[in-house]
Specification:
Largest sheet of chain A: 6 strands, mixed
Oligomer: heterodimer
Number of strands of chain B: 0
Largest sheet of chain B: none
Helix content of chain A: 25-40%
Protein name (chain A): NitT/TauT family transport system ATP-binding protein
CATH class of the largest domain in chain A: Alpha Beta
InterPro entries (chain A): AAA+_ATPase (IPR003593), ABC_transporter-like_ATP-bd (IPR003439), ABC_transporter-like_CS (IPR017871), ABC_transporter_ATP-bind (IPR050166), P-loop_NTPase (IPR027417)
CATH topology of the domain at 62-226 in chain B: MetI-like fold
CATH topology of the largest domain in chain A: Rossmann fold
Keywords (chain A): ATP-binding, Nucleotide-binding, Transport
CATH architecture of the domain at 62-226 in chain B: Orthogonal Bundle
Number of helices of chain B: 11
Number of domains of chain A: 2
CATH superfamily of the domain at 62-226 in chain B: MetI-like
Strand order of the largest sheet of chain A: 6-7-8-3-9-10
GO molecular function, one term (chain A): ATP hydrolysis activity
Radius of gyration of chain B: 22 Å
Domain ABC transporter (chain A): 2-235
CATH superfamily of the largest domain in chain A: P-loop containing nucleotide triphosphate hydrolases
Distance between the termini of chain B: 24 Å
Helix content of chain B: over 70%
Shape of chain A: globular
Structural class of chain A: alpha/beta
Shape of chain B: globular
CATH architecture of the largest domain in chain A: 3-Layer(aba) Sandwich
CATH class of the domain at 62-226 in chain B: Mainly Alpha
Number of helices of chain A: 7
Chain lengths: 255, 261
């Protein structure tokens, strides 16, 4: 349902042509949990932002249900890494309801839907809290509820748990999987953490440091996945090696 | 603990206030200065009370305040348009910058003779002075506010399906509310001063009763110096009420409640 065809991204900086992504092609099917794994600076966020429609492709095409993506839209909602993505002037419920209101949903219906997703992410009882009264993890839950409530065709998650402490990250990974299991949305999840990719994804796209696809790995480990389970360590070693060899190159390129 | 300290500070401020007023009263009663020019505070209070109860002061105040409200409302609309234009387009921004550089240093009251020539003696001229005094400092504030809107907010807004004026009203304006309010504070202070100053030059000539500024001018003309001071007292009290009460409540209900400051 999502198809990238030879997608290229080039930035021009003072006579210097910087090719961030060079000919990326892959497909993500309905209901799939797809991870993009790569070192920081490899262009994975740029890739996600182009699918979101925030940045234009320099070459190639991105098709959603056969139609080319030209800009942002409510069919692709992004959840960011930063805790400050909720509108500060709206309560949790207000934040979740607002995009529904924009898209013309009637008051009663959107209230019902907002409360459904707020409960789903475990924020029941916090509907009337303002964002600054919530912890980081709760803010990310609320942002997830807001994205889910729009029932987009694709959820775009850009390292949404990267700012959380280890314990909260694990909890939220589990919650995300529980939600994914019950709603089966299509998810594209960007991360630089190997274990996170293994725990979450059906397929893992490993990027090279210079914006190309290194490989796409099928993750056949049985769910639910724990770091101690058979096969996990081998997969981790393998993927870690792939990412590690890119990492230093990417770091050098950045500076 | 903090509460007790606050109460102590309040008490000490109150103490100073009362001491200053007492000093005023004593100096006035001592006869060092001509008592008609330097009326005792008790007399000023009495006149203030009389004029308040017979409605005169209230009428003058209301007249000035309605002028300010009209002026502020118009200025707000113009400010939003100018600021939004400036952050949306380089061209408009350069225009706003040029206008701002020329007009910001120009005191409103200096424009009054021109305003009288263009609009005659009356409300329109005063409104013109208010607009001029308020718009430029507010544009500077609101432009900064619009620039400070996190790019994530704009991207989310666009994802949700907002564009143009709906993005402005739904995301950009609420997100820059702290700047908006501080701009409004400056605007209010400027407008209040502009009105009093402009009214002193004319006021009743417009056929209406005139406002506080005009009242100050007339009481001096009729040598009712206690009345002049009573009007000054009214100006001080309104200033305190608006700045301490209105803006405090407004902030508590909005940006403080939302953790935006």
């Amino acid at each position: 349902m999502l198809e990238l065809q030879e997608v290229v991204k080039v930035y021009l900086r003072e006579n210097f042509r910087h090719e961030v992504l060079k000919g990326i092609s892959f497909q993500v099917s309905q209901g799939e949990f797809f991870c993009i794994l790569g070192p920081s600076g490899c262009g994975k966020t740029t890739l996600l932002r182009m699918i979101g429609g925030y940045e234009k492709v320099s070459g190639g095409r991105i098709l959603l249900q056969g139609e080319e993506i030209t800009g942002p839209g409510p069919d692709r909602i992004m959840v960011f890494q930063t805790f400050d993505q909720l509108f500060a002037w709206q309560t949790v419920r207000g934040n979740v309801e607002y995009p529904l209101k924009i898209n013309g949903m009637a008051r009663g219906e959107r209230r019902e839907r907002a409360d459904f997703y707020i409960e789903m992410v475990g924020l029941k009882g916090y509907e009337n809290y303002y964002p600054h009264q919530l912890s980081g993890g709760m803010k990310q839950r609320a942002a997830l509820a807001r994205a889910l409530a729009l029932q987009p065709q694709i959820l775009l998650l850009d390292e949404p748990f990267a700012s959380l402490d280890a314990q909260n990250r694990e909890i939220l990974q589990e919650e995300l999987l529980r939600i994914w299991n019950s709603l089966k949305p299509t998810v594209i999840f960007v991360t630089h953490a190997v274990d996170e990719a293994i725990i979450l994804a059906d397929r893992i796209l490993v990027m090279t440091e210079d914006g190309d696809i290194k490989m796409i790995v099928e993750n056949k480990l049985q769910r639910p996945r724990r770091p101690g389970m058979p096969g996990f360590a081998r997969m981790w070693d393998f993927l870690y090696e792939q990412v590690r060899s890119s990492r230093w190159q990417a770091e050098k390129r950045k500076n | 603990m903090a509460k007790r300290m606050f109460a102590n500070r309040l008490l000490s401020k109150l103490f100073w206030l009362l001491l200053l007023l007492l000093l005023w009263e004593l100096i006035s009663r001592s006869g060092i200065f001509e008592p008609t020019l330097f009326p005792p505070f008790s007399k000023i209070l009495l006149v203030f009370w009389q004029e308040l109860t017979d409605g005169l002061l209230l009428e003058k105040t209301c007249y000035s305040l309605q002028l300010i409200l009209k002026g502020l409302f118009l200025s707000l609309a113009i400010t939003v348009v100018l600021s939004f234009g400036a952050v949306s387009s380089r061209w408009v921004e350069d225009l706003v910058d040029v206008l701002n550089s020329i007009l910001h240093p120009l005191p409103g009251i200096a424009l009054l003779p021109v305003a009288i020539l263009w609009f005659g003696i009356g409300e329109t001229s005063i409104l013109f002075i208010i607009l001029h005094s308020v718009i430029w400092p507010m544009v500077v504030n609101l432009k900064t506010g619009f620039r400070s809107v996190p790019s994530i907010y704009l991207e989310l807004g666009r994802s949700f399906g907002l564009k143009g004026i709906r993005l402005l009203g739904g995301v950009i304006l609420p997100s820059s509310l702290p700047y908006f309010i501080s701009g409004l504070k400056i605007g209010w202070a400027r407008a209040w001063r502009a009105v009093i100053a402009a009214e002193m030059v004319f006021g009743a000539a417009s056929g209406t009763a005139g406002g506080l500024g005009w009242h100050i001018y007339m009481t001096r003309y009729y040598f009712d110096i206690a009345g002049t001071f009573a009007a000054l007292l009214a100006i001080v009290i309104i200033g305190i009420l608006v700045e301490e009460l209105f803006f405090n409540i407004l902030e508590k209900m909005t940006i403080k409640k939302w953790g935006m400051v």
